[in-house]
Write a structure and sequence with these properties.
alpha+beta, three-stranded antiparallel β-sheet
């Protein structure tokens, strides 16, 4: 079970619970952000293999993409 959301930065597991999506879907969304393909408004911090997501950016985003947009 994920620790309760209290700070401005969330782990992947906390962010998935906060959004009500699976961890796998959130990992796809973060991977797209890191490759600059989608989800540009997400704010990420990386510490080694740990990625934190800014809670404010999750509140502000309208839609999170888990598949790369087709041109």
């Amino acid at each position: 079970m994920a620790k309760q959301v209290t700070a401005g930065w969330l782990t992947m597991q906390q962010a998935a619970v906060y959004l009500g999506v699976s961890i796998r879907a959130l990992k796809y969304a973060v991977a797209l952000k890191k490759r600059n393909k989608a989800n540009q408004s997400l704010i990420l911090k990386s510490f080694g293999n740990r990625t934190l997501i800014c809670k404010q950016s999750l509140d502000d985003i309208q839609k999170i993409f888990i598949h790369a947009p087709k041109h």
